[in-house]
TrEMBL record:
It is found in: Cell membrane; Endomembrane system. Belongs to the SWEET sugar transporter family. The keyword DNA-binding does not apply. It is a multi-pass membrane protein. GO terms for cellular component: endomembrane system; plasma membrane. Mediates both low-affinity uptake and efflux of sugar across the membrane. Residues 234-253 are annotated as: Disordered. This is Bidirectional sugar transporter SWEET. The chain crosses the membrane at residues 20-44, 56-74, 80-102, 114-135, 141-163, 175-196, 202-221.
Length: 253
């Protein structure tokens, strides 16, 4: 019996060690993703205007990170400290971006951003109150985890619009390779982490993230080659023709 217990304990210890290592790698790739908008906000500060940049992705990311921080707390789940740390960093970064974005937003856009921020905070407060005061302890993870998984899936599905644009314009300019690759790797790491932790709310959205990531990388590979052939196949005339085709496709969006 002792040997059986020792073997089980050894296996559990190994799984915890591997999941921690995978989670740390996931944290590193997620940090890179959270920091990827820094050049955009440098431009906003430099021009003192948000220009054509949309603030909606940062609002969505803030809401997503807030709910995952809550999900990772011991009052909801157990032993998910790495989920708390990376999403806590995400809350900090997205809040920082919004603190830069909102003052430089113009007119109705600024009011729209402020209203959505208020809605997010109020909704977050309601979720916390309902979870801690209405739901029994054994139902909390299901409730908060479902919301977190839905939001996370929506975040991973957001690039579908960019993918549609790539297909229509036959240009990969709107879908940077490194961002797509980091998103794919990040999804893989967190899906593995979720499997090791036996947490379906982490597994499901990140499994979908892997699928979306593969689709993005496949599109990039195909249309990047297409774009190179178009720009190099016929010299200068080829470059002009490719540009014209992208412009015509864009007009149909």
């Amino acid at each position: 019996i002792r040997s059986g217990v020792s073997l089980q304990h050894y296996k559990m210890t190994n799984i915890d060690t591997v999941s921690t290592a995978i989670g740390i790698l996931g944290n590193i790739t997620a940090v890179l993703l959270f920091m990827s908008p820094l050049p955009t906000f440098y431009e906003i500060c430099k021009k003192k205007s948000t220009g054509s940049f949309s603030g909606v992705p940062y609002l969505c990311s803030l809401a997503n990170c807030l709910i995952w921080v809550f999900y990772g707390l011991p009052i909801i789940t157990h032993n998910l400290i790495l989920v708390i740390t990376i999403n806590g960093f995400g809350v900090f970064m997205e809040s920082l971006y919004l603190l830069v974005y909102v003052p430089f937003a113009q007119g109705k856009n600024k009011m729209k951003m402020l209203v959505i921020i208020l809605i997010i905070l109020v909704a977050y407060g309601i979720i916390i109150v309902l979870t801690l005061t209405v739901l029994p302890i054994d139902k909390r993870a299901l409730f908060v985890g479902t919301i977190a998984a839905v939001l996370n899936t929506a975040m991973y599905a957001a690039p579908l619009a960019a993918m549609r644009n790539v297909i229509q314009t036959k240009s990969v300019d709107s879908m940077p390779f490194l961002l797509s690759l980091c998103t794919f790797v990040n999804s893989c790491l967190w899906a593995i982490y979720g499997i090791l932790k036996k947490d379906p709310f982490i597994i499901i959205p990140n499994a979908l993230g892997i699928i979306f990531g593969i689709m993005q990388l496949a599109l990039y590979a195909h249309y990047h080659k297409y774009q190179r052939r178009a720009t190099t196949g016929d010299g200068t005339n080829g470059m002009v023709n490719a540009s014209d085709k992208r412009r015509e496709a864009t007009q149909h969006v």
